[in-house]
Amino acid sequence: MNARATIAPETIVVGAGIVGIACALQLRLAGCPVTLLDRGEPACETSFGNAGAFAVSDVIPLAEPGVLAKVPGWLLNPLGPLAVRWRYLPALLPWLARFVANSRPARVAALTSHLAALLNRVNDDYAALIEQAGVGYLWRRHGALTLYRSESEFQAAAAAWQSKRVHGVLWRKLTRAELAAKAPQIAPVWQVAVEVPTWSHVDDPYLFSRGLFDAFVQAGGRFVRDEALSIGHNAQGRVAIKTARSGELAAENAVVACGIWSDRFLRQHRYRVPLESERGYHVTLPNAGVPLHHFIECASEHFVILPMAGGGLRLAGTVELAHRDAPPDWRRAHILVERAQRILGLFDTSDMSVWMGNRPSVPDTLPVIGPAPDVPGLYFATGHGHLGLTLAATTGALLTEQICRREASLDLTPYRLTRF
Questions:
Q1: Residue 202 CB-density burial (10 A; 0-12 exposed, 13-18 middle, 19+ buried)
Q2: What CA–CA distance (Å, rounded) separates 31 from 34?
Q3: CB of 273 within 8 A of CB of 368?
Q4: 1-63+102-138+201-274+363-420: what fold?
Q5: DSSP 241-278
Q6: Is pLDDT at 318 greater than 80 in this prediction?
Q7: Is the pTM here over 0.70, yes or no?
Q8: In which band, very low, low, confident or very high, does the pLDDT at 271 lie, cut at 50, 70 and 90?
Q9: C-beta neighbour count of 270 within 10 angstroms
Q10: DSSP string, 342-399
Q11: Beta strands 228-233 and 172-174: pairing type?
């Protein structure tokens, strides 16, 4: 193997969402010749409509202890924070069984450590990419406020916050007076808040993702708009990707970062990764006229408020487990407006738009990052769930270390697909 193959191998990244874009940019900045392949325009699928957060405090997996008792409520309330569509339940049962198994206290403790190992480095991993792309003007490092109606409501979550502190999350409890000083728009009914100063957000997730993509192209990266059909090896032993229109693309390595659509290539190689759609909804209100600085989380109703440029807002959150192709239930988007007005008061809803996206989720909340066990040169970067934007740069940094044969900064064993 020549020196170039060892240090800067040619790589194809399949999928131009935020994870694929960040992986491609990290590899290109490391000197690798990189082709980014997608059937559509960059950042126009799930990455288009996310909540814009670098959610560095989300170290606790979704399957918390006691989650089994909540499952009936998910089935009965289609507008609840987490809902399961009845028709999809038979197909979803194996995933749900794994999800519940991961809620055991010992398992939650281990998963929390593994998530914290990724999340504690997010801001550092993003900094170089943001500087390279010149999108620092979109990066708002004002922190986040998690709201509680009462002291008793906060106390119900206090153990989780203490666990987060143990795992490196900085936070501070605010009184009503302190909350009013920081965010006077918040209604008085919200009596307690937790401030996470290291949390940050971007004004517009699409513009941010597109900015990273433009930086990739400006750095010499190549973008091919085509659909990947299959991945294998050619006669020369290189990873070969068959496409719908461009024939065969070959390189020393390939990274599959197709979000929920990564399952096509997982199934092709008979990898049993339980990947399901964690469907998320948003409402964008460009004329809301609310000059928020902090990212807002509502603890009791599990949704978030993203401050956008010019006083605009994006309301997002909740989880719906359903088939990726099932028709959207737009009630789940519209109800967010009513909930947000209980926090911020009435605001302008003119030119409001709604959106739904399929977030790729695995039962243990850990993303899949690393090599395929028996296909040399093939890597996967998927399963990020609601942490796709948050963990994109870190995922790219970790895969770049592996592909470029650099010293590993983190043991990737907990994130490999072979754990399933």
A1: buried
A2: 9
A3: yes
A4: FAD/NAD(P)-binding domain (3.50.50)
A5: EEESSS-EEEESEEEE--GGGGHHHHHHTT-----EEE
A6: no
A7: yes
A8: very high
A9: 7
A10: HHH-----TT-EEEEEEEEE-TTS--EEEE-SSSTTEEEEE--GGGHHHHHHHHHHHH
A11: unpaired
